[in-house]
């Protein structure tokens, strides 16, 4: 086993939390390997836009020495919200960006690219899918790969998201369906191809909500608008409707039925999207999600506290990564570092999970307001 001054650290998952942890460790001269099942950084789209909060996501970026680079990419004007009446399309409320920059938006892909570019070449081992971990009696942990190989580390950090392969070493908890599904779609070159929608959305995000139905549309960079059609429905809503999710025309027709009575300016989102419809049921872990400390392994981000995507998860994952890295470079040993990190992670994740659940109820009301 390596000394406490030079522990062997593996991070499973090259998402925002894991990459933040790796960056901060490398800033302090520590070696780290990040194992990612995807074959490259651009193997799949990285999702929509994120607002970085000053006390979480931005604090983590400052800790990582990347805050200035973040601000060079971010869109402060994106911190605008327009709430519209679902039946008339009329503007109900408008929240303008704060004068101090508040919570600037950035595309998730841009933020991930910023973190990846900050790491030493070769830090991320692409195409290395993990099948599980085995804590060992000497306090280390064995990382098991899909190809049948294994490597031992002083610490394995599960930063591998909702369906974590690391989490079973610590917890039997499994994600549960929230009762809400997002159907995602998108629009390209909006200012020229979809000018009416561009005006409706404004510089940031647009929300319209009815009972059990909502529409959210968000500005991304490069003239793209990403939209989320939110449904309170069984997870197999499409089966009950008798449609195949692969049949995009049938999905569009069914969604238009489900949003009957909504203003036509909002139904434009359903009728005219450039991109296909992607079904995304929302899952959460129990709150609080706790575990007994196990030497050689811990969790961060969605692997530890999966919650609804209402603006807290990515921020909290990055702060987790930063805090764990700082604990590892300041504590007397790996075990002490992980215990210190786990002590501060739990209370804030409980608060965030509670807030996120309330946020989802506000976003997609179950009853008429």
Automatic annotation (TrEMBL):
Gene Ontology terms: biological process: response to antibiotic
Main localisation: cytoplasm
GO MF annotation list: FAD binding; monooxygenase activity
Matching SUPFAM superfamilies: FAD/NAD(P)-binding domain
Cofactor section: FAD
Quaternary data: Monomer.
Protein name: Flavin-dependent monooxygenase
Organism per entry: Kitasatospora camelliae
